[in-house]
Amino acid sequence: MIGPDIAGIAETLGTAADTATATAQLAAETGLDVDAAYAVQTALVQRRLDRGERLVGLKMGLTSKAKMAQVGVDEVIWGRLTDTMRIPDGGTVDVAEFIHPRVEPEVAFLLDRLPEPGEPVGDFTDAVRAVAPAIELIDSRYANFTFSLPDVIADNTSAGAFVIGPWSPVPDGLDNLGVLLEIDGRLAQVGSTAAILGDPRRALDEGIRLAGRHGVRLRSGWVFLAGAATAAVPLRAGAHVRAVVEKLGTASLRSAS
Ligand code: OOG
Ligand code: MG
Question: What pTM, to 2 d.p., does this model score?
Answer without folding.
Answer: 0.96
